[in-house]
Write a structure and sequence with these properties.
In chain A, 42% of the residues lie in helices and 20% in strands. Chain A is an alpha/beta fold. The first copy, chain A, has two domains: 15-260, TIM Barrel, CATH 3.20.20.20; 269-357, Sulfite Reductase Hemoprotein, domain 1 (2-Layer Sandwich). Chain A is elongated and about 75 Å long.
């Protein structure tokens, strides 16, 4: 079913462990997201974590902007076994407290946490606790205002990578290698360049994503392009899709990105033609019905729904099962071979029956 | 405004002309789509073409499955100056008739139009009319059923490219170089490999897209990944996003892909943070309002809408203008420099005012 799996040669990286999830090495590329509520709202946060986990989120990050948030992590930790990451910006003491309260990873931003002694304190605490640190750089925060103008002209990616490389020497001095790196910008081109450049300089696993890329209308396109491009190059060990909206949607899009590249499987994937002047019947409605009916199937199969018989079985031969519409009926096929005719109104049920009788292979 | 323009080195290609639009060479990467109505419904088709053109579609393809459709092209030609492409599958005579009826390009599918004499007839007719031909291969149709199983295992991309290269010898024998090539599969990995392999073998411009990649829920992700990856490699001279749905949405997504890579500009692009526990205020609603208000602006600027002051001006320094929410107010900034405070309910208006007073540079 997953013939495409492992077709993309993957960058060799060290492996780190975040709670029960491994990042890097030969671990599956994991999906993460972030809670979007004040962290001290423990009950609401736990409910959001539950929704995220139910959708397939494997690592959950939480903002820790103040002591209230750091303290709340204790209760949140008791309420979930999801791997938790504390997101720290300005105050290193919050990182120490978050580690005491049981988080599985800390993210520090080299743009904000710069004092050597403070970074050392966080590194030593993480080492003692046996948890990794994400060095999470953002283009805007890592470059000071004056440099920004220059970087805009001369290459923000290189500037980001140089800064992060400098920062990593602090970790090397402490003999701490339990690191995940991210280098995000809201610009897709600069982001992918930064990761590509960094990939040549180290073997730390990468958390990949496009930061602040907007509402779903633009953010899905930007995240798919940036994360997709890197994954196609074998770069990326854990992914975060950032969208201004419900974090559950971030997980959904991340799953589609990974499955779209054959890297992981999360249930059926529907491939359907865009329709054209050759199309017989209302393909848009039929596809919607098929999507709904097959949502209970967990097998990662390709299901084709094509608008005409000429294109149908042939162009959809990559699919495990599929239909091609004809005048008043459809033909059902398995890997390009026609099996039988079905009535248009029975298409979704027929595909569900096929999907559920496929062998788990 | 478009500092990122031309940052990606582009594959050198010949240039062809489709009506008033150039494809390849240094021409802007053009956007195309396809009508999704029976071609003989001339009035409806012309209305759909008008909607597509209004959204920014630069080349319109129409299915020509039979003589009714071929004949209708005569009336459609009279009703629009949009560059028109006739999509031919089985019957080469329909290509000849379409050319007589004034189309600006013909697409032939090497999987269906195979007879040497028939292909020659189409080439000679196109040559006499001075129009290009797209050699538009689809994985499913180009590989015969028996080969499909093998190709699934051994590499569909290489099989597609070999087939198309064979086919192109027919064109070379006729000394016809006015060619655009596409090599589509519904599988993203195979599709990008096919284009990459073909890019090494010729300098014909490429029409890039992922075929039959499904409804918007999955198709936007797959198209963004496939088209985005190729464009990031400098491959692609004209793009088609295929979605099971309204073709106008295909054009919208194509615009976002091109603008997201800094290749073209189509009005403001909103970058907004995903929000987190640090966010002040209802960023989702504010972003929606900003999107609506700025929809009348044509300048291709980056507009940041960030949820907190800590991340705001710094992380959004790549933006031309932006706001960062604080408690009960927001700060307005230009390229990372704070300009003034605004009330939360005035954010969208303030950004509109800023956007419309920026110099056209």
């Amino acid at each position: 079913m997953n013939a495409r799996e492992n077709k993309i040669p993957r960058r060799k990286t060290r492996q780190v462990k975040v709670g029960k999830i491994f990042i890097g090495g030969d671990a599956p590329i994991s999906i993460q997201s972030m809670t979007k509520l004040p962290t001290e709202e423990v009950d609401l946060v736990l409910r959001q974590i539950e929704r995220l986990v139910a959708e397939g989120c494997e690592i959950v990050r939480l903002a820790v902007p103040d002591r209230k948030a750091a303290k709340a992590l204790q209760e949140i930790r008791k309420g979930t076994d999801a791997p938790l990451v504390a997101d720290i910006h300005l105050n290193y003491r919050l990182a120490l407290e978050a580690i005491d309260n049981g988080v599985d990873k800390v993210r520090v931003n080299p743009g904000y946490l710069r004092e050597k002694e403070q970074v050392q304190a966080v590194i030593r605490k993480a080492k003692a606790a046996g948890i990794p640190i994400r060095v999470g750089a953002n283009s805007g925060s890592i470059l000071r205002a004056g440099e920004m103008g220059r970087a805009r002209l001369s290459g923000m990616a290189q500037a980001m990578v140089d800064r992060v490389a400098d920062y990593l020497t602090l970790f090397e001095e402490e003999d701490f290698g339990d690191i995940v790196i991210s280098l995000k910008a809201s610009d897709v081109v600069e982001t992918v360049r930064a990761y590509e450049l960094m990939a040549e300089r180290c073997d730390y696993p990468f958390h990949v994503g496009i930061t602040a890329c907007g509402p779903p209308s633009t953010g899905i396109v930007a995240s798919s392009m940036g994360i997709g491009h890197l994954l196609l190059e074998g770069i990326g060990d854990t992914v975060r899709v950032s969208l201004t909206g419900d974090p559950v949607d971030e997980v959904r899009i991340a799953k589609r990105i990974l499955q779209g590249l054959g890297l992981r499987g999360f249930g059926p994937m529907i491939i359907s033609c865009p329709t054209c002047g050759r199309c017989h019947g209302d393909l848009v409605s039929i596809v919607q019905e098929v999507e709904e009916k097959l949502s209970t199937v967990s097998l990662p199969i390709k299901v084709a729904v094509m608008g005409c018989e000429v294109n149908g079985p042939g162009e959809a031969a990559e699919a495990d099962i599929g239909v091609a519409l004809g005048r008043g009926h459809a033909v059902l096929f398995r890997t390009g071979m026609v099996v039988r005719k079905v009535r248009l109104q029975e298409v979704a049920d027929a595909l569900l029956l096929e999907a559920t009788s496929l062998p788990e292979e």
